[in-house]
Design goal:
Length: 179
Amino acid sequence: MRVRASVWVTAVLTFFPAVTSAQQKFAADITREDINTVLESMGRSIDRQLKVVDIGIGNVAVGILHRTGDNDTDGALRGIIHAQVSEVYYILSGGGTLLTGGEIINPTEPSAGSDLIGPTFSGESRNGQIREISSGDVVVIPAGVLHAWTHIPDQVTYLSVRSDPHNVLPAGFVNELIR
């Protein structure tokens, strides 16, 4: 468990540039209770933003996601691409088959996206990386990289830490359930 925690910390510290003390005014906390409150209220939704924090050089957002087999691609090598937001997944429970990267074929036009992920489009992957992901794993998905859960045997629940250097996510957002 210590190795996985060390990998998580290393990924986050590598992924986000250092912030000077002049830029950072306070620390933002998200408690286990906050995560569980939002997770338990998700219903059929698969992705809920918890908080979006302005760190002076962009935003960092944290979301909770829960997917079942009804939310996978049934093996299709098609996924989404966030144009400006990168993600770090930390798998809390469950797992499945994750596809990332590859050459993007038949891309759609970018959408305006949402407060969760910013501008996004989809496409098919040729020669992407397919592998099994499970509880405790960390995956770093840079902006512009296709990603999709192609098979989820039961469920997967994970945190998504989103790096937003372009300020496309709403700084200061706090999920209404944890305000």
